[in-house]
């Protein structure tokens, strides 16, 4: 055997550095980690609470989409004012007797709870849907029907509730 030729017995293990812990070494990092965890927990709890609080809104939007698919049906048009009134009754922290509102009081309530302006005669249009004869409702042009559905959807999606 030639002494100049390296052999596997001559190999030595490489010395590795000591392992470094990923845990924070000072108490300040632990405090920061705790604050971040607490903040994440508070944000998650608030979002869950808001998601539960807005259940009525999601249900109203689903029902509104079902009604909009049947926009040619008179019963779907007649249900729009009832749907808006039920949505308003389901709002939390309202100090208004929503069930008794009508006419301009109903218009003022609807406008007070949404930032974009509603049509000036929106409550009259809703009253027309609720109380007009079938012949009057059948005479409504499709554009006006779609506009009513769009306005109702905008109100349900964007109305604000005082917390």
Question: What does this protein look like?
Answer:
This protein has 163 residues and is mainly α. The protein has helices spanning 27-53, 55-69, 74-90, 103-112, 122-131, 134-138, 142-158. It has a domain at 55-158. It is 62% helix and 0% strand. The longest helix is centred in the first third of the chain and has 27 residues, at 27-53. The relative contact order is 0.11.
Could you outline the blueprint of secondary structure elements for this entry?
Blueprint: H1 27-53, H2 55-69, H3 74-90, H4 103-112, H5 122-131, H6 134-138, H7 142-158
Helix pairs in contact: 2-3, 2-7, 3-5, 3-7, 4-5
Based on helices, strands and strand pairing, what is the structural class? Answer: mainly alpha
Radius of gyration (Å): 32 Å
**What does the main sheet amount to?**
none
N- to C-terminal distance: 90 Å
Unreliable residue runs: none
**Shape call:** elongated
| Helical percentage | 55-70%
What is the averaged pLDDT score?
87
Binned strand content: under 5%
How many helices? The count is: 7
* Element-level helix/strand string: HHHHHHH
Give me the count of strands: 0
Produce a short descriptive summary.
With 163 residues, this protein is mainly alpha-helical. It has helices at 27-53, 55-69, 74-90, 103-112, 122-131, 134-138, 142-158. It is elongated.
